[in-house]
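$ fold --in a.seq
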Amino acid sequence: MRSIFLHIILACLLLTAGCVNDNSFAGNNEQNLKIGVIGQPPVVNENIDFIETTLESLINASDTEFHALFIMPECLEEASKPQFARLYKSLKYPVFFIGSTKSYYPFIEESLTYSTAPSTSSGMFATGFINEDGQYKIFEYGLENDEKTEKNLKLMYTNIFKTISNEFISKKTN
């Protein structure tokens, strides 16, 4: 009987340990993520190098300059101008449209702008996009209970950083 009780307690401890909510990004120990930012960089307590840039400067930038690009909410309209659609499709790193209620369509479709594109009902707060050999790969991130709180934003950004590290950095190093 005592042995069964110990096994139950041990199983509960193991299950609890597996369910720890880790809201931090450990990242790649060899390097910090370098993320280009169009607009005001997010405030996060992570080991991330945010590099403010402009869309015009990206047209001539090297593909290896960043691990990802964030386009912040205040720049979504400008970022949807037709001249940038080819840029997003040609980048070798993902672009994340933060605060977009219209997914990635107005940014890759030259006939749309952010203000003229229809909103989606997906409830997503950020959408990532990359063109991998002609195939679009999309990543979407929502906020818990659709609430824009500091905690929920931090969790969303942590999930984006993990995606960048797991999907793009670890694949390049393997």
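$ fold --in b.seq
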Amino acid sequence: MKTVILLTILTTSLLCVGGDHLVVGNTANRVVLAEHKRVEYNAIPFIKRVKYFFYSSPDNKVIQGIQALDTLHSKASINITAGGVGHSFVNMRMKSERGKALGYDIGIYVNPQYP
């Protein structure tokens, strides 16, 4: 029970922090990469680019980890708006700096033995 509470607090604190990368949950031990997507948007002068990413597991596997890396090393932000670790779906919103391009490398990890 203490582990679940600690994991919930850690996940919530990671979601509140804006930054270059987003890593939530387990992305290393006994999990497989279920989805890999590269999200890119070109820059438009004086405009912030917003892109949404949606993932839903076709066989209702529970997401164990999410890794979103800013490939451009910019000051873009990424947030999980729904679902995430512990669910079979995730919705994410990415927003670039004003006048800058947007580029993220997103990986969704599931445990193949856990339904």
